[in-house]
Each structure stands twice: as C-alpha cells, then as structure tokens.
Write a structure and sequence with these properties.
alpha/beta; two-stranded antiparallel ribbon; 7 strands; five-stranded mixed beta sheet; 4 helices; 140 residues
Length: 140
C-alpha cells in the first residue's frame, strides 16, 4: 500500500463494543493509528493523536486506533491511564497491520473521505507533519 492507493477495508472488534469497518467511515477523512501498549513511541504519540482528533473533529475527522496483537483490557487500561477517551480496534492477529504493510510501530495512515491514502507516517508522529497531512486528507 502506498500514498494514492485505496485504503484496504477491514472490520475489527472495538473496545467500545461491536465491530467497526473502515468502509463505515467513507465520506469522512480518517486517521488510522497502529499502536501497542508495549511501544514506547506509541505512548508519546497518543497525546498528539488525541489532540489531533479533538482539533479536527469539527471538520469530520475520524480517528481509528488499531491496537496491534493485544487484547482489549490492556489497551483500555493504557488509554485510561493516559487520559485518552478514544475507543481502540483490536487487531489481535495482526492481519490488518500486515495488509497495510506496517513495518513497526507506531504508524499513522491518513485517508481522505473517498477512501484514498493521502499520507503515511512511520514512527513517532511529528506535529509539523500532522499539520500538513490532516488538512490534506480533510480537503481531498
């Protein structure tokens, strides 16, 4: 998968209950954040992800946190400890991360309202890149 490609659809169980599919978010820009509780850089990222979610909520941005190969309770405890009020999707066997070609954690994938990948950030999020990548996904 690369910038300009359609984002692969997926359906994963949510810590909020039920399943959520990327296709349900068509019509909205989406930030997909692959992370895990054991990932130090993911911990640093999570505050920026939450700030980004709040800052761009009015423009329709949806944020999908995808917890890599862990169970729900660990993810929920981690997010609660950080004061993050976003549900996480559980990629228990890593299949979605594999489909997205995630080389390591964290990885952020920006998808426009048409379902096209507009940017990929590998490694810890950078505020300057977020300030560029989110608006590009929002206006596409």
């Amino acid at each position: 998968m690369a910038v300009g490609d359609p984002a692969p659809d997926f359906s994963l169980p949510s810590s909020a209950g039920g399943n959520l599919a990327l296709s349900q978010e068509l019509g909205h820009p989406v930030l997909i954040d692959f992370w895990a509780t054991w990932c130090t850089n993911c911990q640093a990222d999570m505050k920026l992800v939450a700030q980004t979610a709040a800052q761009y909520r009015a423009q329709g941005l949806r944020v999908l946190l995808i917890d890599f190969e862990e169970q729900g309770p660990a993810a929920d405890k981690f997010l609660t400890r950080l004061g993050i009020d976003l549900p996480t999707l559980l990629d228990r066997n890593g299949q979605v991360a594999h489909r997205y070609g995630v080389p390591g954690l964290p990885v952020a994938v920006f998808v426009d309202s048409q379902g096209k990948v507009t940017a990929i950030q590998v490694g810890q999020l950078d505020q300057v890149e977020v300030a560029h990548d989110v608006p590009a996904a929002v206006v596409s």
